[in-house]
Amino acid sequence: MNIIGILKKNRKLIFSLAKNDFKSRFAGSYLGIFWAFVQPVVTILVYWFVFQVGFRSGTVDEFPFVLWLTAGLVPWFYFQEAWMGATSSLLEYSYLVKKVVFNIDVLPIVKVLSALFVNLFFVLFFVLICCFYGYYPTVYALQIVYYMICLVCLVTAVAYMTSAVMVFFRDLGQLINIVLQIGMWMTPIMWQSNMIGEKYQRILKLNPMYYIVNGYRESMLSKGWFWEHYLWSVYFWILIVALMFVGTKIFKRLKPHFADVL
User: Fold this and answer.
1) What sign has the CA pseudo-torsion 160, 162, 166, 168?
2) Which of 24, 163, 214, 248 has the fewest CB atoms lying closer than 10 Å?
3) How far apart are CA 71 and CA 163, in angstroms?
4) How far apart (Å, rounded) are the C-alpha atoms in residues 120 and 152?
5) Distances from the Cα of 169 to the Cαs of 107, 115, 165, 179, in angstroms?
6) Whole-angstrom Cα distance, residue 126 to residue 53?
7) Which pLDDT belongs to residue 185?
8) To the nearest whole percent, how much of the chain has pLDDT over 70?
9) What is the pLDDT of residues 177-221, one digit of tens each?
10) pLDDT above 90 for 53
């Protein structure tokens, strides 16, 4: 399965479905898409209050805790929403899966793109908070685009695998919830990796989300280029290619049986 070919050939269809998917999630509510932004903002404020006000966490690597925390939560919120949405995409759009003429390969990508709309808002939200604290965007901030591409590629790679399996094993959604809960603390997002030994830090860095979260922080706060960690970057992209290969192979192998099960 050629992901790039699917995107190129069906780009208008994918964008149209993603836009409709985003709108339909809030259809019927008085405040509409406003709710898409409320929960993540409230979550950030709660974490900020608990850690900075309650536990009196001051600065992290000389940066205000709220900035360091938000830099980790923004990509994590996207990864969480996009992965869960894409995993259940075939179930949600089962009526399209049963249509012989419809290319169901685009459905996981639709969910990934739909979640990206909210993420773009939160990237801007993060930049504005940084400006409020006096950390204005520099040329390093352009790397956020690179790390957003990393995010999209990562969630797409795993989503093709999990969306296909989800059709046959509905409990997978609950397992992913558990993985996300553990993953949030293993990234790490709300604590520093230097709190543990160097051996364990190397293990944590095998988590691809660690690479992305660290990249967001370097883009706006600590000012570092992604190629300065070239071995880490090479590892990340090798992992993405491997996950994409395995995920698309599984999707292609199970694809003929989707309509029968749904």
Assistant:
1) positive
2) 24
3) 28
4) 12
5) 18, 24, 6, 16
6) 20
7) 86
8) 91
9) 999 999 888 888 888 877 787 788 888 888 999 999 999 999 888
10) no
With 0-12 / 13-18 / 19 or more C-beta atoms within 10 angstroms meaning exposed / middle / buried, residue 113 is buried
Structure token pair of residue 91: 């179930």
Q: What is the DSSP letter of 190?
A: S
User: What DSSP line would sit under 32-69, residue for residue?
Assistant: TTHHHHHHHHHHHHHHHIIIIIIS---EETTEEHHHHH
Segment 171-180, tens digit of pLDDT: 898 999 999 9
Q: How far is CA 129 from CA 51, 115, 204, 221, in A?
A: 17, 22, 28, 12
- Rounded to 5 degrees, φ, ψ at 64 are -55, 135
Residue 200 CB coordination number (10 Å): 11
The one-character DSSP state at 42 is H
Q: The tokens of 224 are what?
A: 């570092």
| Overall average pLDDT of the 71-89 stretch | 91
